[in-house]
Design goal:
single chain, alpha+beta, 3-stranded mixed β-sheet, 3 helices, 3 strands, 16% strand, globular, disordered C terminus, chaperone, proteasome binding
């Protein structure tokens, strides 16, 4: 529905997603992998350099990120998915920091004025979010 309201000409899509490192398929032990880490998957129309290694087979992407990337592939929209594999259940600053290399990409570099301040801003956002999500017993 979102894409139905958008002009597809000149559109480029970047998808950010996280999933458990246990879902990552590799011949080496997942215990030795530095967590969190990024992998990318792109449509054939996406011509820019990706900011991390491409996702290897037999790994798969699921749910909404997969649906968006599939839609972009079918409609020939340049798109890239950055999948962060993490060992934590709740989103934290370490996991978000894994996406930091993307801030230097062509499409995202104009969104951030000062990358050095990003860590401080992220910590503030997550701390504020945590206070609103507390359950009092």
């Amino acid at each position: 529905q979102v894409f139905g309201c958008m002009q597809k000409e000149g559109l480029q899509v970047t998808i950010l997603s996280t999933c458990p490192v246990a879902d990552y398929k590799t011949q080496e032990s997942t215990l030795t992998l530095p967590s969190p880490f990024l992998k990318a998957l792109k449509t054939k129309e996406f011509k820019e350099q990706v900011c991390c290694p491409l996702l290897e087979q037999p790994n798969i992407v699921r749910d909404l990120p997969a649906a968006v990337l599939s839609y972009c592939q079918v409609w020939e929209i340049p798109a890239v998915l950055y999948q962060c594999y993490t060992d934590v259940i709740k989103l934290d600053t370490v996991t978000i920091e894994a996406f930091k290399p993307l801030l230097s990409s062509k499409i995202l570099k104009n969104l951030v004025k000062d990358v050095s301040e990003s860590t401080k801003i992220l910590k503030k956002l997550l701390t504020t979010n945590e206070t609103h999500n507390n359950i009092y017993i």
